[in-house]
Amino acid sequence: MSNTLATLTHWLDPTSLMATLSEHPVALIVIIGFISLLESLAIVGLLVPGVVMLTAGASLAGHLELSLPLVLLSGALGAVIGDGVSFWLGVHHRDQLPQRWPFSRHPEWIEHGQRFFHRYGSWSIAFGRFVGPVRPIIPLVAGMLDMPASRFFMVNGLSALAWSPAYLLPGYLLGQTWQSLFTLPPGANGLLIGLASGLIACAFAFSFLRRQLGREGRLYHWLARRMRRSASGRRLWWQLRHPDPEGEFPLASMALLVFAVISVPAMSLAALAHPGPWQIDVVAASLADRLHTLLPENLLHQASLWLSQLGDGTGLAALVAPWLVWLALTRRHAIWIHLSAAWVGIACANTVLKYLIQRPRPDTPAFLEGSMSFPSAHTAGAVAVFGLAAAFIAERQPSPRRRWIYWSAIIACSVIGLSRIFLGVHYLSDILGGACLGLLACALVRISYPAFVQQPCPSPTAPVVWLSLASLGLLTARLLWLPL
Q: pTM (2 decimals)?
């Protein structure tokens, strides 16, 4: 047992993994081809975060200076095989596929693929390879619609030769050049690979849970059946379920709450035990310093300063004030109280944690004199504001549109958090701690809100344009007349 654990630990160690792959470059080339196959395979390509995995694999190949033609050929070959298997399934199982999961639950996938195929004909094989939602479906539909195999494989092969460089070359060049551009501390290679592996694992988990915890997911329906067997379960289900006709039980928010309840204390205790910079903080600071030298003088600093001003308490207040006023005037008291409580709760929790942990900042400018570092109040506030805004907007949107809403919120929070690192006033671990605190507030609001709501919000009659312009005007005034 101990030998097995030792072997597993060795393989999971990023430094050992890099050393192993450098000694067996063929294995990495095969892995890239296999990821390309999964990305192109019917159904599977919808579930796996293939783009993230391909970028990570190509970056590692570039860092190890593997043959670029072999890497690109492996990616193209994997894509051809994946599409070929999908085409074969469409030819031989065209009648059974619409009755099988997941197409029995999502018949619109095949319908959308058929419309795309009828619109572009044979070119749909090439075009579809670069269009996310239909990429792994088009070859399957082509087989179901009796596209000649010779024509399919000709278009499939030629398009794969263009697709492979488009998806793999940026990651390969990044992996080939980052070490010459950035001077990193010892051990940073293994840490970055471990971080990339963690991001890939999180992408897998997010992709899986996003489907399973929504109202169309199997886990959601399984829990619904279990809870409806008892009177208390039914009562809880209907109390927390959103009152809209198509409202859902906040299962995803409950999963987020579990994650946040674990991560916030864990990171706080770690910061209390090790108040100095962690290794990941040193690497992030080194990357930030190098970016400062690569970009024009003061460009990154000024941009980070503006983002920091937009993400502080005054900036976020300017952003949300018009919306809170509109909510109050239209008597949407439930959401007004929940959003205000989230903001106050974030401020109180952040103040208490800073006081208890007493972690000094990497650099303390005059306007932050006496202020502690962990957690990042900017990040916590941004995650709470943008996260809740995305959640309330997305609940009225179909599933395909929700991802863009959430990704917009993620990008907004990320740039505000990173601006604090570029200014040198926070460590990366401070940003992560603040993000977890903001997610805790989001989860609590999303679970509590349905029990108090009396009318859905936001309303379709909301003056979105005018409220957005008011927020933009207040943010501009904040930048011009209320500097740090």
A: 0.67
